[in-house]
């Protein structure tokens, strides 16, 4: 997994546009569909460094406890790994006692 970046000259509006452009699907009729997918971010830190690794759900991350609110927001997927990851998350969520659910 690598890093995502874009040159924006410290213009936050440009960053927002670049991210939104990458998360839309344009259909043949010109309509635009927003894509909402899961990204898992792993953080490791010590006194002198911070390391971050990101992976989206198509990588089949081995972390299966996202908030239910996030799972409900995801748009349909055709990616096998993403579908299996979502199914495992839902199954794990069903096994958590109601009082402990996020």
Features:
102 residues; alpha+beta; two-stranded antiparallel sheet; 3 helices
Distance between the termini: 28 Å
Unreliable residue runs: 4-8
Structural class: alpha+beta
Number of strands: 4
Q: Tell me what portion of residues adopts beta-strand conformation.
A: 15-25%
What is the makeup of the main sheet? 2 strands, antiparallel
Gyration radius, to the nearest Å?
A: 17 Å
Mean pLDDT level: 76
Number of domains: 1
Strand order of the largest sheet: 1-2
Helices and strands, in order, run as HEEEEHH
What spatial form do the alpha-carbon principal axes imply?
A: globular
* Contiguous helical run count: 3
Binned, the helix content reads 25-40%
Structure summarized in a few sentences:
The protein has 3 helices and 4 strands.
What does this structure look like?
With 102 residues, the chain is α+β, with helices and mostly antiparallel strands. The chain has one domain (12-100). Helix content is 32%, strand content 20%. It is built from three helices and four strands. It has helices at residues 12-22, 68-73, 80-95; strands at 24-26, 32-34, 39-45, 50-56. The strands form two sheets. It has a two-stranded antiparallel sheet. A two-stranded antiparallel sheet has the order 3-4. A hairpin with a 5-residue loop joins strand 1 (24-26) and strand 2. The two termini are 28 Å apart. The model is unreliable at 4-8 (pLDDT under 50).
């Amino acid at each position: 997994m690598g890093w995502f970046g874009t040159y924006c000259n410290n213009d936050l509006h440009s960053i927002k546009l670049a991210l939104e452009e990458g998360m839309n699907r344009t259909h043949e009729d010109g309509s635009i569909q927003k894509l909402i997918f899961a990204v898992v971010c792993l953080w490791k830190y010590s006194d002198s460094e911070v390391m971050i690794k990101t992976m989206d759900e198509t990588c089949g991350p081995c972390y299966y406890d996202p908030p239910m609110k996030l799972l409900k927001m995801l748009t349909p997927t055709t990616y096998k790994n993403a579908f299996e990851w979502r199914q495992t998350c839902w199954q794990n969520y069903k096994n958590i006692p109601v009082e402990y659910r996020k």
